[in-house]
Amino acid sequence: MSMRIKQCKMSKKKQIELLKFFVAEVSARKASELLEINRNTTRLFYQKIREVICYHIEKEAKELFNGKIELDESYFSDEDARASEVEERLIK
Predict the structure, then answer these.
(1) Measuring CA to CA, how many Å separate 46 from each of 14, 20, 70, 83, 88?
(2) CB-based contacts of 79, cutoff 8 Å, min separation 6
(3) At residue 34, what are phi and psi to the nearest 5 degrees?
(4) Which pLDDT does position 69 carry in this prediction?
(5) pTM score, two decimals?
(6) Cα–Cα dist 53/67, whole Å
(7) Are the C-beta atoms of 45 and 15 separated by less than 8 Å?
(8) How many Å apart are CA 69 and CA 76, to the nearest integer?
(9) Among 38, 50, 47, CA closest to 10
(10) For 34-85, what is each residue's pLDDT tens digit?
């Protein structure tokens, strides 16, 4: 599943311009003034961009850190595996 901005009634040209402003770190309020669109529309578009970025970062992190990770002789993994390891240590 890919995360994209859907159901946007803005023209592609305005979306691209807003994306350029977002990358240039222009505030949503200033971008709305420059493009002459409603500030709430711009704020919502910026929020959707952040959600898409967050989705892709989380997806990449899950793929990168899949399984067990050893750090300073400590093991980290998902909770189920960790719980079973603790049970095994307690039994021994």
Answers:
(1) 13, 11, 37, 40, 48
(2) none
(3) -65, -35
(4) 63
(5) 0.64
(6) 24
(7) yes
(8) 5
(9) 38
(10) 999 999 999 999 999 999 899 988 888 877 777 666 666 665 566 555 566 6
Kind plus residue range of the DSSP H or E element containing 75: strand 74-76
CA-derived radius of gyration, the chain: 22
**Spatial distance between the Cα atoms of 50 and 20, rounded to a whole number of angstroms:** 14
Distance, CA of 84 to CA of 73 (rounded, Å): 18
What's the token pair of residue 39?
Answer: 């500030």
pLDDT (average), residues 27-35: 94
SS3 49: helix
